[in-house]
Model the fold of this input.
Amino acid sequence: MSNTFGTIFRITTWGESHGPSIGCVVDGCPSGMELTEKDIQKELDRRRPGKSPVTTERKEEDKVEILSGVFRGRTLGTPISLLIGNTDADSSKYEPIKDLLRPGQAEYTWREKYRTIDWRGGGRASGRETATRVAAGAVAEKLLKRFGIEIIAYSKEIAGIASDTNGLDLTKPEKLRALIESNAVRSPDMEAAAEMEHAILSAKKDKDSVGGIIEALAIGVPPGLGEPVFDKLGADIAKAVMSIPGVKGVEIGDGFELARMRGSVSNDPFIIQRGKISTATNRAGGIIGGISDGMPIIIRAAVKPTASIAIKQKTVDYQKKKGSEIEVTGRHDPCIVPRAIPVVEAMIAAVLADHGRISGQIPGKLM
Amino acid sequence: MSNTFGTIFRITTWGESHGPSIGCVVDGCPSGMELTEKDIQKELDRRRPGKSPVTTERKEEDKVEILSGVFRGRTLGTPISLLIGNTDADSSKYEPIKDLLRPGQAEYTWREKYRTIDWRGGGRASGRETATRVAAGAVAEKLLKRFGIEIIAYSKEIAGIASDTNGLDLTKPEKLRALIESNAVRSPDMEAAAEMEHAILSAKKDKDSVGGIIEALAIGVPPGLGEPVFDKLGADIAKAVMSIPGVKGVEIGDGFELARMRGSVSNDPFIIQRGKISTATNRAGGIIGGISDGMPIIIRAAVKPTASIAIKQKTVDYQKKKGSEIEVTGRHDPCIVPRAIPVVEAMIAAVLADHGRISGQIPGKLM
Amino acid sequence: MSNTFGTIFRITTWGESHGPSIGCVVDGCPSGMELTEKDIQKELDRRRPGKSPVTTERKEEDKVEILSGVFRGRTLGTPISLLIGNTDADSSKYEPIKDLLRPGQAEYTWREKYRTIDWRGGGRASGRETATRVAAGAVAEKLLKRFGIEIIAYSKEIAGIASDTNGLDLTKPEKLRALIESNAVRSPDMEAAAEMEHAILSAKKDKDSVGGIIEALAIGVPPGLGEPVFDKLGADIAKAVMSIPGVKGVEIGDGFELARMRGSVSNDPFIIQRGKISTATNRAGGIIGGISDGMPIIIRAAVKPTASIAIKQKTVDYQKKKGSEIEVTGRHDPCIVPRAIPVVEAMIAAVLADHGRISGQIPGKLM
Amino acid sequence: MSNTFGTIFRITTWGESHGPSIGCVVDGCPSGMELTEKDIQKELDRRRPGKSPVTTERKEEDKVEILSGVFRGRTLGTPISLLIGNTDADSSKYEPIKDLLRPGQAEYTWREKYRTIDWRGGGRASGRETATRVAAGAVAEKLLKRFGIEIIAYSKEIAGIASDTNGLDLTKPEKLRALIESNAVRSPDMEAAAEMEHAILSAKKDKDSVGGIIEALAIGVPPGLGEPVFDKLGADIAKAVMSIPGVKGVEIGDGFELARMRGSVSNDPFIIQRGKISTATNRAGGIIGGISDGMPIIIRAAVKPTASIAIKQKTVDYQKKKGSEIEVTGRHDPCIVPRAIPVVEAMIAAVLADHGRISGQIPGKLM
Done:
């Protein structure tokens, strides 16, 4: 088990899907930063289920409480403990199928590793765990904002339908955010959004699910974040994003497309822009040699379709070690991409906050 | 700077491209394992340049010396220090261009971060650094082999030309390895290999470079490796592979393709095979919920084209902060994919050895 | 800030003295271990104030709740989150003196480091923080007990009065524990206990405080725990114990006395005892070369007198930067030694559990 | 095995006593610092044996080579690899006694832990390992000096003979250092020095050995170093010092003496001195609540007598598991205290450099 992430800005999360509560401890946040529950609730509400037909029907309030680390509205530099209750857990559907391995789910490997597992709602392997990442990430995002860094993610692709993201105006993050939040699938492309929504509902009708690709931008990151050779910024982001349930691929900048280019095309020429060094293109996605170069950081994550589907699937009974069939009838998202977006943002924020602290660009006290 | 990788099986590397030598320290290897310089040299020789027309002409012997941690042919459980001399460094070509930023190279970000840099041959940002990863990885691979784990990587794609990898026989790793090593580009598909080689030489003639995709398999990994929720096996592999110079994307199993499937297709059905639980397909690439499931682990890495190309490129002079042009005339690989293959294997081996130690599946002493 | 301790068995604590609650997250505990709130409450009750005239009058219930990591009475291998409410915090006494530095207390250094501090009751620098160490330690102690390891600590000395500890019967830990718990100062020597109690009350009457020395034994530790060269068992114990508020010295075995012996006396001769290798004496205190040798581990910790005393003391006003006087009139222990005993046990347990996990002697699952 | 120390300023050491060489890798040193082999050699020469009748006769040159991390006299921010040859190893004396456990030595516990050991000269458990600590520490000391921090250690006590250290002038570190270096036992008290030397030689004549107490001062440390609650400055120093071979006790400030004081005496009153907050006394030894307070940091380490003595001792044969006798006739120091002094300085320097980096008081680049 390793439930702590980061070197100086460090997140520790805990909790099972159907336990009394879940939560996290954020260590290494500088002292003197304004922080309220509202800052965190805002992000949790974005991840919260039950808000549109494309998400699960589980109705979690996801109300966060700050238990430590903040005094009279300001951080103390001490660990910030955040608590979120589990209020709408319904374990009854899981009891009858507890020995049937749900295809694509973690029960099999967890049983092999831990033997004793909490089979209710996926236990700690449930997507519910990501709520605590979002809570912790909200603290990181607040901190980064003070240093002019904004993280914005959206659906780049769902069910094979791509968003047109040419011409996104990165100079107005709040406006871009509003655009993305204006539809249920979080695409900045309204036409694609409608198609995506339709594709999700169509899969849902078929008791099936779909996946997609999340694109995230980190804007305003100064040059110099990233610690060669092993803790390169891209390497740490890759780990952070790949640790999110359902993510099976990560690329930076032009990613896999770079593999098909020639060097004369893939290299970003250096230029002088407003007296400062910059690059004419950004195929590298803001990271060269593992260190941020001042351009927007661009990350894409491949999200597999939700594993829990109501279609009858072949599987085995773990105890009896024999073949069986399963219909997973809990409440599940037919597509987790829209709700995974704040999680991707949170994990990228955690990495940037940590590298900000490690490099000294973010100091230990803010006032 | 962070030059240490791993929690218990830990690698620390050091060295600049044109310094007196490079090396690494491997900590956490169990005691009692047979180990000789030959075991390591074998892997170094695979990464060594100067062996075919598709690689650089720098002729490094890459001769490794074991300085500690081994006594009378067996490991002691103490740190294994490995030293490799730099014998063919030629810094003369770098002096005249030391203030010109080479597009796609790390000088710009390194100068921003460290100010003082060793501009000779890329310094520590040079691909030469990866020789020490291969040396350390050889120790990990030897260890894993004792536990029946084999890691094999090859060119899945170069310059857009794909290897046909259907029907690779994973039950005979040594035969597969021989097949891969039989051509200069390390493809298991002889026809594709010829085309790839041609494409590389054609780019070289144009003073340009090409990239590609490396596919790696880890065969024989038992279920139970990987530490949820942050140190998932796939997350740690993603970090390890993304930390390799030139890698800009990582995917596991069907990776980005999963984003376009439906759940009913992407889920690997559980089956009973020879009395044991297995999966009928392996779209997950051997990792479910961050933990190995016993199936082959499948990883793909996108490698960008070599940044150093002899074509004239636009750039800037770092000191004068003004536009310029550059022709990078050192000795460079027109395609680093073939030589990066042992590096990818080494990094995956390092992760698996570490998770084997963390989980206790690999004990601290072997005899 | 660094509020996480350990490599695999890892404790993260949080909370301020007068915040809503305090707590901890215990990661890396093997799955399958029986664990209830009672196991933890028992240890918390030993640390709890308000039980005798020699302790503070603050009446904290210190009721612990397990929020995660345990399912139907058994650990899951996932993080165990423990919560303890702060119910009897009285901040009123601190408001008037919040800018006066209390001699021997951490406000000065905390203000220099964090600027923003929670001045109520010492904030996170309060001894109250140690309740969470005890809670986490109780989990470690339960785990160690399964492997036959017992940790027992007691007052070796208070206010210069020494306990006679010759002839303690280590073969009956429960009986020894009962003896120690039979008096308010936790000495195994009843006569000394009476004198110690008297000395504490006499200091209290004088509005003053006293210190002492805690001796801890770890019995049943197998040979082989400890990771040379930096994470030696004694080194990690020294750090663990020195991190407890008020501790200013740590020694192992004969400790400082060894500095005055000759080698012919200080060396413990090896002997064969019941067919196994042992030592005739135990001046090394169970650790040779940083690794446990199978003998009882012996640790002593010097605890300074409680810093908060009601006597008028010279000090300065932090804001006004000028001289002042202070009488600290909160509720304080005239001697923290008795209540620090379970804290010392907890920290030693945390180290041993971690080294048990690192060395593989304690596996990741217990059933 | 854990051969890496520190979080950001990180030391990794390697090497066996009779292997071809020993060395270390210093990671996290800021870029732009002037550094030459001379800076390191100077400290190694202080630890080097064979310089006086009170030390071993093994004549190691201990010549250090910088293999990486420095370019044209300045650090690069990349790992600094340091190599020291083993030139005077004589293994012949160890062969006949390789199965006899030397009392007080680590063979027994190492064999239990690793089974395979290098029995020549203690292998990695030899005091020779500390040369690499000194080499790494020299880099830390150079760095600290740039920030006005000086570390000075000396023999506080040898064979029960105490140095009078009242009135040491801490405002002139170089002069104090010269005083200490003026005698073979490194005491600042010339009279005590003569007695100590006599006591050591007398023990040597008796084929025996003696121990002592090292006192170290860190002068010029600014307030704010140390990370509550677990990585307190005193806790990390305690670990660092306790990890040195032969050290069995550590205390800070008045240490164990504090246990016998009353709070009204042990508390250091805050005062205003030259407009700044200071303390009238320094019983706390420069650390309050785990954070440096600006006063000199005072540490004492108890060093046991050298375990290797030529007197006949009782022991056992490890293989035959039966009683035997041993006379350890290698070349050993009759008292390691004088040579351990630079080691204690080095370890304290490593901790302070790391905390300087973690807290941001020491930045990542110096020019």
About this structure: The longest strand of chain B covers residues 150-158. The two ends of chain B are 37 Å apart (CA to CA).
